[in-house]
Fold this sequence. Notes:
Elements: H1 3-7, H2 20-29, E1 36-39, H3 46-55, E2 59-62, H4 72-84, H5 95-112, H6 123-138
Parallel strand pairs: 1-2
Amino acid sequence: MSPAAARWSPSPPTPPNIPRRTLLDALDRLPSLSGAIQVDGGSEFMAAFEAACQARGILLFVLPPHSPKLNGRVERLNRTAREECYDLTLEDFTVSALSRAARRWEHTYNHIRPHQALGMLTPAQFLAQSHKEQLSRTS
Length: 139
């Protein structure tokens, strides 16, 4: 998986009371996949997510329990989402307000906010650059 795809946020990590449809919709918003997703296996929606991934030909790699060091990028994304999105929306904690805030944060994270690990590009810029380079190599 490319560095940008590994850092792309289809939506911020969601609290457990958010409908499972959100999790499945996130699959459709991923810009590209290398055919595999790494998960920690902690979701109560795992069976539905596994079925959706299987239908799309996506392999799942489930991490062992209590192994956050094996999932560093996701743990960092969770922290960033808490600090930049959820902590700022607590005054109006309805599902619709949280959903609106999450969508705004997702757009900012993927299209506006530069990432040091991506050479100060946004994930969208990095993916576009990578795609352009792949096309020039195959031409």
